[in-house]
Request: fold
Amino acid sequence: MALETIEAQSVRSGDRPNLDDYDALCREFRWADARGLMDGLPDGGLNIAYEAVDRHVAHGNGDRLALRWIDNDEAAHDFSYGDLSDATNRFANVLAALGLQPGDRVFSLLGRTPELYIAALGALKGGHVFSPLFSAFGPEPIKARMTIGGAKLLVTTKSLYRRKVAPIRAELETLEHVLLIDGAEDLPDGTVSLADALAMASGDFDIVATDPEDMALLHFTSGTTGRPKGAIHVHEAVVAHHVTGKYALDLRPGDVFWCTADPGWVTGTSYGIISPLTNGVTMIVDQAEFNAERWYRILQDQRVTVWYTAPTAIRMLMKIGSDLPQEYDLSALRFMASVGEPLNPEAVEWGYQTFGRPFHDNWWQTETGGIMIANYPSMAVKPGSMGKPLPGIDAAIVERADGAVTELTEPGAMGELALKTGWPSMMRGYLDEEERYRKCFSDDWYLTGDLATRDADGYYWFVGRADDVIKAAGHLIGPFEVESVLMEHPAVAEAGVIGVPDPTAGEMVKAYVALKPGFAADDALNRELRGHARKRLGPAVAPKMIEFRENLPKTRSGKIMRRLLKARELGLPEGDISTLESDEK
Ligand code: AMP
Reply:
C-alpha cells in the first residue's frame, strides 16, 4: 500500500542536518544575512567564480578535492580547489588575450569534461557571460541560441564543431573565436587549440570586479511560441546557489556530491558547478551516459554522500530492479534528492525500500535560478509532493484575472504557482525580450506557468504546466521550435507538436503532420521526417513519433490547437472549442 508520509530522515537517523528546524529558520531567515556567507570582492564586488573557487584557496583549503572527473573508461582525474583556481585563471587570461571584454558572451558546446567547468568559471572570472549549450543539440537549436545570445566565443570539440557548428558558422555573425579542447592536430580552419592556449597563459589573473547585478549566466529555455528565451542571471545569484545547496541538498564540508545533470541545462550549472563548489564539497562528474551498473559503482567507489538526480533516471533504475543495488555498498549515501519533472510517489517509495531513504523531490525552473520548493531531511516526506518553499521564499497558489492576481488560500485549491519577487537568483530578464519578461509578473509576484496545489500542512503538489511546453526526460522543449523544423521539409504543410505520457521519460515528443498535396503518408516519409528532425534538432529535442493527419485543428486565426490534439490523443474532454475553425475530421 502506498505510504502517506515517510518520517523525516533526520528523525530516523538521529543525524542533524543543516536545516533542522524549518519553521524557525523560515522566521529568522534574511537574504541579507545569507549574503554575509559570501566573501565578496573588495569595493562591494561579487563574482561567482571567486566564491566558488578562489575563496577556498584564500582560506587555506586549496588542497581540498574540488572535482573528480570520471572519464568514459572510468579513470578518475582529480582537481583540487587550487588546481581549479589555476586552470580558470589561465582560461580567463586566454580570453583576455583574444580581446574579449567584460560582458562578452562565452558559449560552450561540450559533454561533461573538465574543460566545461574550467570554461564556465574562467569566463566568470573575466566578467564575461557564460552560456552552456547541451551537446546533444542539433545545429538548429545551437544556431538559434548563439544568435540570440550574441555569442562571441565558443568552446567545443573537433567532432561537435565539424558536425554541428561548421555547417552554420557563416550564419553566426557575432562569433569571432572557437576554442577546441581536444588537441592541436587537424584543427579545422578558424579554430584554436585550447590546450595550447592554456599552456601558454599565465596562472595569475586578477578577477574582474563584477558588480552583483552584472550579467553572469545566460540559460536558454523554451516557451509555447516563439524563439527560445535567454534567461539572464547575475552574480548575486550565487547567494541563492549557496544557501539552497546548504538547506535543500544538505551540503556539508567533507561531502562527496554527485549531481547527474548535464551542465548544458540549468541544474547542471547551478548545482553541478556553482553550489557544490561554494559549499566547499567534492563534486563527482561522470563523462558517460546513464548506465545502471556504472552508476551504482560510482556511488559505491566514490563514497558519494549526497546524490542529486532526476525522475527519468530514477525510473530507469527502478525498471532494472532492486536486486542490482544490493550488490553494492552504498552505505556512504546520506541524502538523495530529485528535480526537473514530477517525481511519482512510487519512485519515492522505491528509493525508501531500496536505499533505506526516500528521494527528496524539489522544484525550480530556469527562471528561478535555484531550488525554490523542497523536501528537507528534517521534514516528513509526503510521496508525490514537491515539499515546502525554501526559507526566504514566499510561494502562493494564485489565479490570474484581468491583469491582477488573487491568492487562493483554501487548502487543495488549484491555481498557478507564484513566487514573491526578490530572491537573489531570480532571472533579471529574458535577453532582448522585455515584453515576454514582463508577462511573467503581476504585482510583486513572479508567475511560474506551473499549476499546483498546497495542502493544509503547507506542502506543494505539482499538477501540470499551464502552457504547451513539453518535459521529456527532464528537458524542457518548446513545441514551436520542433514544429518550425518540421515545416522546413518540403512535404509538410502543417505541424503540431505535443508531449504524450511516457512511463520512463515522463513525456515524449509527438508530432502531428499534415502533408502537402502529392506526398504519400507512408512509413518511408514518416522515417524521413523523423530523420530530418533528428538531424536538425538533435535526439533530445526531435519527435520520437510522427502521426499523419489530413488536417490539424486550428483556431480561426490559424493557430494550431495543440491542447485539442492532446485531449484527443489522451481521450480527454475537448474543453472549449469555440475558437476552432477547421478540423481534421
Ligand atoms: P527547466 O526550466 O527546464 O528547469 O524546467 C522547469 C519546469 O520543470 C518547471 O516549470 C516544471 O514544469 C518542471 N519541474 C521542475 N521540477 C519539478 C518537480 N520537482 N516536479 C514537477 N515538475 C517539475
Q: What stands out?
A: Residues 81-97 form the longest helix (17 residues). The mean pLDDT is 95.
